[in-house]
Amino acid sequence: MPETKEHSSAAGEELERWQKETLEPSLTKRTERKKSFQTVSLKEVDRLYTPADTEDIEFSTDISFPGEFPYTRGIHPTGYRGKLWTMRQFAGFSTPEETNARFKYLLQQGQTGLSVAYDLPTLMGYDADSPLSEGEVGKCGVAVSSLADMEVLFDGIPLEEVTVSQTINAPASVLLAMYLVVAEKQGTNWEKISGTLQNDILKEYIAQKEWIYPIKPAMKLVVDTFEFCTERVPRYNPVSVSGYHIREAGATAAQELAFTLRDGIEYVSWGVDAHLDLDRFVPRMSFFFNAHNDFFEEIAKYRAARRIWSREMQKRFGSTNPRTLQLRFHTQTAGVSLTVQQPLNNIVRVAIQALAGVLGGTQSLHTDAYDEALALPTDRAALIALRTQQIIAEETGVANTVDPLGGSYYLESLTQKMENEALEYFRKIDSMGGMVAAIEKGFPQREIQDSAYQYQKAVERGDQIIVGVNRYAMTDEPAEVPILVIDESVRSHQVERLEHTRSTRDNGAVQNGLEKLKQAAKHNENTMPATIEAVRAYATLGEICAALRDVYGIYEEPAF
Amino acid sequence: MSNRKIRVLVAKPGLDGHDRGAKVIARALRDAGMEVIYTGLRQTPEMIAAAALQEDVDAVGVSILSGAHNTLCPRIVQLLREKGMKDCLVLLGGIVPQEDLPKLKEQGVAEIFLPGTSTEDIVKFLRENVKPRD
Q1: Is B16 touching A (CB cutoff 8 A)?
Q2: Taking the complete model, does pTM exceed 0.90, yes or no?
């Protein structure tokens, strides 16, 4: 017999009546397709949600109005009626010249913001000519080794007008410095620049694993950028606290939510401990979430994120400033959900995931290209991904009203479950001494690995279906798609510019800048001014990171 | 046939940190009764070959998602052969374009597993292809 929930209220009695009179006769005639129905996070979903499921959710305190605490329905009173989300496609490959051309193409096609993908050597703080960079230059993103590359990357793109997001973490302060110097050379006042630096080192140790230094000095570098930007680049977001990579590594939706927000709390604590003004730096923190396949679970996650953040900022830090309490976020569709098999199906997946992000009230959105399980996107694939957002914005009508799904019994119940699960994780992490301590113990890492394995098993059992992979598979693929190939000549091109830079710069100024940086790091001073000075003298990324490694050492991951 | 368990080195070469696949495979092979050694991140081909020799493994499973497979895999195979590990299988898993597959096999990669592969297929491949020892 199907389970029935116990309810004492009028709504509960009504439900019981329906179960007895209507449901049970129906189930005796025809059973359901499966014994249990689960989300992509392997969480049980009930047959039906009714007022009985939302009895302890109060409209005034839990749901409320958009633009008002606890911001469940969004941070803007008018939702997307005032301004659509920013369409910000993550792009970067090969040389700075090639990526610059892609940026200009995307802007011409109506994209409203830029987002830079750097290659692995850049992410790890190595120059293109490092032996460790062999085979990796320009492959997963654009190669940037010095200011000379950055100048080419943004050539002809006015940084005063276009907001740029940079996905860079361990060496983030260096790439921020390069960006600021390029803006300065364009004649732009830093106070006018807006954009975002990912700079979320905690999720590197948890999931993405592109680290350089040990955790504590790495956190110090993050706080340095908070302090510097608050004073000098006040419209810039110096961190994008990211759940995206946590989810891609295998976390459930609730784990993504919990670990990301707890990371956010950790950054706020470190900022407060460094005597930064809470209501000046927290409003410039932004977040970044994944949009996975389970439509309602994702929308619930975004709504819960806003509610939790505002409550925690109030409870833990005593803030009453709306801008501190409001969580703003970027969304990217789930790369991990894309299939190599029947790749055009990915266009459909991306559209549905993007729709979830929009219904969840995202501030900006990246839609993956259909060929991303195969390689970096071609022009054509990148264009369809952008058009997908434009169709959602202009044709579907979902942007006409604020939080259109608010009040749904299922969604509100799921939003509350999501919140409760995240708070349970907060209790565990707090009891370990905070997120840095929890990471050192390997706690979030193990939780994520475990979820990844459980999901793989569920796919192999056939409990989770992937169309074209474990169901509706075809031996002859109906569509061959062209893919982007990055050849090894990119490296020689980059090495050539690097050699030219090294031979034409003032090496005395470089040494001087690097020495100042080391001194700042040693004496626990803010490292940003010295980083900017070194960058201006064309010290390379590899040289700057080597100088900091000399002072801070490197991170070695324990076996978890 | 001896009762020796199949020993596999799961390796993650290159600068990439995406280790979800490597860790899922390591656990699945362990659950299938194999002995698995995971190298951790950012191992050079030299480090991987040295670990394979030291651990006396039957197979090396290499996980690469960054596009650096054409540089890294042939070198791993070559270093293993130089160390006299003639029967040690090299398996590759990750994002590898179709057109790279024939060349990688020619260069000594025993099998390439693309996204969507079941861990059971990898277990089966190892059981069928690892050379029994005396």
Answers
A1: yes
A2: yes
